[in-house]
Amino acid sequence: MQATDTERWFDEQIGSHRGILFKVCNLYGASHEDREDLAQEILIQLWRSFPAFDGRCAFSTWMYRVALNTAISWLRHDTLRRRHVEPTEERLLISLPAKEAESDELRLLYTLIDNLGPMQKALVMLYLDGNSHQQIAEVLGITASNVSTRMNRLKNEWKQKIGQSDGPEKHHDNL
Amino acid sequence: MTTFEEMEAAWKAQSAKLDQVNLLLVDQLRGKSVSRVKAPLRSLIVSLWLEIALSATGMLLMGSFLAEHVTQARFVWPAALMDVWFGATLIAAIRQLLTATKINYDEPIASVQQQLGRLRILRLKTFRWLFLTGQIVWWMPFLITSLKMVFGVDAYRYLTPGFIMANMLAGLALIPLVLQVLKTFRFAANASWYERLADIIAGRSLAEAQRQAQIVADFIR
What we know:
The complex is a heterodimer of chains A (175) and B (221). Chain A has 175 residues and is mostly helical.
């Protein structure tokens, strides 16, 4: 494949899976600026890692891995990152949709996810995106049974939390 | 009461909308913009190469100094101390570089995060160790060898063995003192690089890195 074909194919693939990028940024970035910075870093990391993509796994699996690894590292080394990243003269033209949820259910979901650790956030996102336990295990590098156990535990915890918050005197609008 | 299934449905509805959002990355992603942005790991690799070059140069200089003054014990001991310090720096930098260059972000997340955690711990331990031992090496041994190497001056003509010994012991005593002070006094939050340095030397950053590594290890189990 010639360079231009590669670039075009990359653009097409990223375009087809853009939802992954937006969702990772929404989950790991606190402010709009954070999310834009993160999106920029993920896109650059994707482009840098792209030559190593050999098609042995699905493009979405590969993109999840790169995007989530970048986001988790970005989150952990946030202060360090700000010192190392030289600001570009012009920002990449990323039009990130607002994180502000449109429904009570989504708002509640984001509230619950915000209290999770970086690895658990990745697990939940992969699960909500409809990936099978085996696919999630491939992305995360854990066993499928571990995925199943963790998700069941998390659902139960959330159920209890929602139950507590949804008492007679409290509506989830308050969450 | 909101159920998990309802939240899942809301997520899917949001996903469908996000798939329609315009992503204007095209040309700007490549070319100039990419080359100007330095990812943390890339910067680390560059700084490790620099550390390797500097410590190898230091080792070569000390090696040649040792060879020239091999019969003069008063020059051998400081040069040997510095040579060992440079050697340790070189080995530590090579170890870190080998770990860093093996990390690929397209590998499974748990594995990558474990590797990053190990690298961070290694880097923090190395920096702390080199900083503390540097209190001994970068005072008397450096003064004696550099005066001789650069100016051809024999430091022993001006400094008594007692003075040299006292300063060496002071450097040694400084290590637990620095550790104790930094462990006792915490600096104000957001005190920039100074606080970060203090956290590294006092071992707080190392403890945090080990805690993070344990979280990843627990997640895999």
